[in-house]
Amino acid sequence: MPPHRRVDATGIEPLEELRESVLICGRASEGLDLLPDRSVRTVVTSPPYWSLRDYEADGQIGRDDALGDYIKSVVVTFDKVRRVLGDDGTVWLNVGDSYTSGNRRYRAPDRKNRARAMRVRPPTPEGLKPKDLIGVPWRLALALQDAGWWLRSEVIWHKPNAHPESVTDRPTKAHETVFLLSKSQDYHYDTDAVRGPNGRRLRTVWDINTEPRRRGDSGVDDHPAVMPMTLARQCITITSEPGDAVLDPYAGSGTTLLAARELGRRWAGIELNPAFVDLIEHRLAR
Ligand SMILES: C[S@@+](CC[C@H](N)C(=O)[O-])C[C@H]1O[C@@H](n2cnc3c(N)ncnc32)[C@H](O)[C@@H]1O
User: Fold this and answer.
1) Of 92, 62, 88, nearest to 74 (Cα)?
2) What spacing in Å lies between the alpha carbon of 225 and ligand 1's midpoint?
3) 13, 98, 159, 264: which one has the fewest Cβ atoms less than 10 Å from its Cβ?
């Protein structure tokens, strides 16, 4: 694979072609404007989860916005994703859920798990009660469906190695949701590309362990929410072919981009925090 090009979202003219892989530093909504129409075959992405983490960058979604604004901003960004996606293109969208805060506004820092770094809890969304599970993934999925996306599957990413939780009035959470969305009714989906146990067609529950965070070997900070390579690989293999371009508009530490490269795909990644863009380049160089 040829080396990638790194650019700022606001620094260059839109690309006429996506011949080489591109790493864009900036807001997803701005970075997407640089990419050519129908230049991408599939998207594997995990936007910031609502009210869960602070990615320490101006313009981040999910931290200061109300739930409705968060959903609106993903939907508006996904309108731009639709333009850059081929007509038979798809999106794998991984989103996590959360609980309402009730009246507690402060969250104690969790030193063991920096992924819970957000100190301030947002107010409880209207219509919900203290301790309610918000249902963020489905609220977002239905909004995307209303905006014209085909909602094709809900995959349960089961984490056999999920952390224990100190809760005594509900089961411990051990899964996240991954939706498969398509731009059109017919789309590229290779059912033989990945098989489940005993060679059976893939089911909607995928057992994939979270991967341990690698700290301290990069010279730049590590990332609090890294997706397992296995998950990214599986999605890319099913809905794209070698030589296609794969997009992640919320690239984080670049898992989707690394998996795409490994599988012989070109890639486009957009990430807001320049420190994470450095981290992506470091992972790519390893
Ligand atoms: C859940 S993480 C993605 C993790 C990624 N899948 C991985 O494996 O490393 C979401 C990322 O979106 C970035 N982000 C937040 N707001 C953004 C925006 N408006 N545009 C682009 N990236 C944004 C955050 O900095 C964070 O790195």
Assistant:
1) 62
2) 9
3) 13
Q: How many whole angstroms from 11 Cα to the centroid of ligand 1?
A: 20
Dist. CA 57–CA 26, nearest whole Å:
10
For the chain, the helix, strand and coil percentages under 3-state DSSP, each to the nearest 5: 25, 20, 55
Ligand 1 lining (C-beta closer than 6 Å): 27-28, 46-48, 55, 57, 59-61, 223, 225-227, 250, 252-253, 255, 270-273, 276
Give the separation between CA 15 and CA 18, rounded to whole angstroms: 7
pLDDT of residue 199: 94
Task: Residues 5-285: name the CATH superfamily.
Answer: Vaccinia Virus protein VP39 (3.40.50.150)
122 or 152, which is more confident: 152
> How many residues are present in the chain?
286
Helix (H) or strand (E) holding 268: strand 266-271
Nearest to 250 by CA among 20, 32, 18: 32
How wide is the angle at C-alpha 161 spanned by C-alphas 209 and 278, nearest 5°?
50
Three-state secondary structure string covering 203-253:
CCEEECCCCCCCCCCCCCCCCCCCCCHHHHHHHHHHHCCCCCEEEECCCCC
Chain-centroid distance of CA 275 in Å reads 18
User: For a pLDDT cut of 90, what percent of the chain falls above it?
Assistant: 79
Cβ burial of 116 (10 Å; 0-12, 13-18, 19+) is middle
Contact between residue 128 and residue 100 where contact means Cβ atoms under 8 Å apart: yes
pLDDT-derived band at 38, boundaries 50, 70, 90: very high
How is residue 23 written in tokens? Answer: 């790493």
Asked if 33 contacts 80 with a C-beta cutoff of 8 angstroms, the reply is: yes
Strand partners, 228: none
What's the confidence (pLDDT) of residue 108? 55
Sequence ranges of the domains in the chain: 5-285
